[in-house]
Design brief:
Elements (H helix, E strand, L loop, with lengths): L3 E6 L4 E2 L10 E6 L10 E3 L12 E3 L6 E7 L8 E2 L4 E6 L11 E5 L14
Antiparallel strand pairs: 1-3, 2-7, 4-5, 6-8, 8-9
Length: 122
């Protein structure tokens, strides 16, 4: 299967017309087992079952992640949406913790409903 993306309307952010960047209100999720990018997000129903205009659930199930790095933004980072994020945390799956290219930035302090909890190593 070739690499593809599923574009979903991202309901937690509003387009900020005053921003330097033009965000279109969507979020692209990699789709397909052979896709080189990784994100912690999951779609229900699966991307293969979705058609244009369908409703779906986007979530990050309880997942153990490795933190690659953390950034604070003061002032909040201008990325084209409102509210602008105040921090970002770059996460990787534990099996790829040594590969800085294998992760995903999660933006914090905006409206995305992301909850993080530190865990102890087993």
């Amino acid at each position: 299967m070739s690499s593809r993306y599923v574009r979903v309307e991202w309901p937690w952010r509003a387009i900020d017309d005053s921003a330097n960047f033009r965000w279109d209100g969507t979020f692209a999720l990699p789709h397909g087992a052979s896709h080189p990018e990784w994100v912690p997000y999951r779609l229900e129903p699966a991307a293969s079952e979705l058609r244009a205009g369908d409703f779906c659930t986007v979530s990050i199930p309880p997942t153990r992640l490795y933190v690659g790095h953390y950034e604070e933004y003061d002032p909040p980072r201008n990325l084209g949406w409102s509210p602008a994020p105040t921090a970002g945390i770059y996460v990787l799956p534990p099996e790829n913790a040594d590969d800085e290219e294998a992760g995903c930035m999660l933006y914090l302090g905006s409206a995305d409903p992301i909850r993080l909890e530190p865990v102890e190593e087993d």
